[in-house]
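Instructor's aside before we start: the two examples that follow are unrelated to each other. I chose them only because their records fit on one page, so don't look for a connection. First example below.
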Amino acid sequence: MNSLVADIGGTKTLLSVLEKSTNGLTTRIEARYPCDQFESFDDLLTDFYQAYDIPKISYACFAVAGPIIQLSENHQTVNVTNLPWKLDNHCLQTKFDLPELTLINDFQAIGYGVESLKNNQLVTLQTGKKQAKEPIAIIGAGTGLGQCFLYWNGNQYQVHATEGGHVDFAPTNEEQLELLKWLQCETKPIAFEHVLSGPGIYKIYQFFAQQYPSNQLEHLKVAEDPSAIISQLALTKKDPCAERTMKLFVECYGSQAGNLALSIVPKGGLFIAGGIASKIINLMTEAIFMTSFLHKDQMKSVLQTIPVHIVTDSNIGLMGAGVYSFIPQKDKFCLSR
């Protein structure tokens, strides 16, 4: 049996055809598309079908960056965060002749993929004391900031997507407080996603550019992905402004990961996914992230027991969507309640 799966983010979309066998899931076709080249997801999927010889599809699951609206038991829609796209599973089923299609949140998909991760797909920041069947939490900065959690329902882990990336940004020192005040000159309220995201990295850089010499600002204004340039400059230590930017970014990342850990107490582990962490491993493994993570006054001893890992597999969302696609429809409804 084959499943058509997608991981739809604000910047890129990954598409894959997965085949299920006794050995698990195998990738038959895989493609990556920049979202800004298509007016709608329908146009992107049409391009995919025209470019590849798509086998018979038995199931489909699309993981989307945005809150899923459940109109009825089997009818779903979603407006993609940071994109003018709207997906409707009934319309897509009809247009592309799909026998079954489920929409899930992109971080919900990561939740379904996290159990299949192997040690070589993880970088451990804190071993902690993992406990079986205990809650698991996931956070990940990319185009936006995603968060979800898993809890054991007696038979299996059930994944719950959240919009926790939109909670208020809470400064923990004077420098972060000055950043908040600067950001508030442009928009209010300020959420953690305004800081912990690709666009957030560029905003932090602009903030520091007022204080530190930068010959990159004009170049970054026209760059396709300024955050990637800034993180690379920081890693190579070629720009003091970029170094300060990424130091503050990692510091805030650790702080919000600690907030999530205190909210869920994920004794099964906290996983850092998203498109940024795996690209700045050298910065994430420095002391600043875990120092900020543990900086919670009397709760430090609780946080020290939680395993903390960075996910390095960029296809975890696709694999999670694949896992979910093969769950029987009646069980999907129970898991999404």
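Example two begins here.
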Amino acid sequence: MKAQPVGAGLTAIIVMLLPALSAVASERGLSTRQISGYEEKFAAEGDHTALINAVTNNDIKGLSLDREKFIDHNKLFSLKLKSTGVTAQENSGRCWLFAGMNVFSPKVMKKLKLSDFELSQPYLTFWDKMEKANAFLEAMIELREKPLDDRIVQVHLRGPFGDGGWWQYVVDLLDKYGVVPLSAMPETKQSINTDNINGLVNRMLRRFTAELREMHQAGRGEQELRARKDEMLYDVYKMMVFNYGQPPREFEFRYETTDSLITGAKTYTPLSFYREFFAEGMPQYVGLMDDPTKEYGTLYSYQWSSNMIDRPDITFLNIPMSKLKNYCLKTLLDSQMVYFSMDPGKQHLRDSGIFKEGIYDYNSTFGLDFKLTKAQRILYGDSSPNHAMVIMGVDTSLTGAPVKWLVKNSWGTKHGDGGKWYMYDDWFDEYGYIAVVDKKLLDEEDLAALKKKPVSLPPWDPFWAAFRQLEW
């Protein structure tokens, strides 16, 4: 038998397989037979003209609004902590910082008898950005031998200079840099519209990454890389000064009390101001989360989660939502506001400031099922703790159970009810994820859990992956 060339044999095999491959492809593709079947089934269900006209000519939320749930809403609260002023983060993702300042500002107001007062978010943002840039470049030096498509490297490159953050960032920044009144470092055009500067510095940091990796490949040592990193950080510092202004080393603070007494000006540094008005009696805060995809009663830490390279990873104690809400109630009864994180994009009536589960009944509008469990929403990327607010009040039933919670937001007075929101308890169950409370309020079981070694989770964990990219 005459031998066949190798290439000819392969060609024959491919020709033989083509019909089978084509059959498999046709089974997987959307066929005209399927489409015809969908059309016939849709027609057999009845006349959909009214619904098509309604949906194509109106807002879906308006059509799906459950009027009974809306009418059932009221603005009464059993307990409401005093707070003045509504802040606005504008076009930035600094909700975590505004929420943190909304917790701390009342302390100064009460101590000094002020009718209104606001701390400087731009001041702390300036140092948060510097710390993030430093942490990113340090990570790139540490990961210099990893391939560029390594999962950890890619997580860092995704957004090295974002606005997002967490409560622990607030505490760490205050401890290291202090704080100043808004009058000492006010907002700028760039601090309230961060897209441009974020985009430019992200590009710089990625260029720096390329340079550091090239230096490593050329045989440069870690000491040389770190020296170059210092020069790179100076460029970031210049960008921050050009866009935010230079943070004050010291400032004069003068104010008028509610008794119309005007004080003489006193000079502070940011750290001396913090120590005089905040540091003394500062509660020891702990982070609690409800993540039903993980084991309750367990302490978790998230790798690469701190904005500061010299601070530990962020930890959360995972507890059931019923317990988390109980701690929120205890915190309010202790006259403290509650910093918490949630998903505000679900089931909210923006103009009235209502968070209420089922207030939009999309299932009834379309006759389709849109429901997912809380665990499913986390695992499949449908929901995450992507916004931070402050709980400042609660309305309870005759049995003492929470019915709704009063929330202070940072979206200005044009959204919600003059900047305040009404979060119903069933909504909190579904879309609330994190709360920060005073450690002294925890029971013995949870205090014991805090002492255990945390379970370390990667930065792509579904719960944290979206959270670290806060952009609300």
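The chain has two domains: 92-282, 284-472.
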